[in-house]
Amino acid sequence: GHPALEVVFFNAHLHGCLEQLRLPPELAEAEDEEIIDILRQRIRQGSTRMPIVKVILSGPGYAGKTCLVRTLTEGAFPVEDPERTNGIDICAMMVSEGRLEFVFYDFGGQPVYASTHQLFLRSRAVFLVVWDAVEGRDEETEVHGYAQDVLDANPDAGLLFVISKVDDGRPRSRLSEEQLRVRYGANF
Asked: Which of 29, 31, 48, 144 would you call most buried, defined as having the most Cβ atoms within 10 angstroms of its Cβ?
């Protein structure tokens, strides 16, 4: 059940009880009246918890982000190369017999979109930094720049690093898991 709404708080505010009320942390700045309205609406409607996992993919253009999303959502690698992503492509996938939804935010890797992406990077999500680690590419730009964009907007974000196209036979970068772990610490 839901907590009783008639509880009287002295020198306290409901936004300090969001976890106990099973409300999202985005309501931390909300007034008590707004939180009470949300709780009353839940009771009237009868709430069903539908877990949603936001997965945000960031990385340079042509890194393989779109192919990764399509492989995950369609169960097979795309036969044809997808067109370059302009802006953001959003795609959803239901799993566990419809009890869990993954929503993928596939960001175009072109620098022109970086400021727009900042709006999305502030949310609670799983952040994937995807790159093609062919030898000779600039890792500061290809990996660390995109990872830092996420951390600048969301300092507590957890990062998952995905190296794409490892099966194409080209020489690979020497960037190791340990180097990423050392550089990103608790965010890794």
From this structure: 144
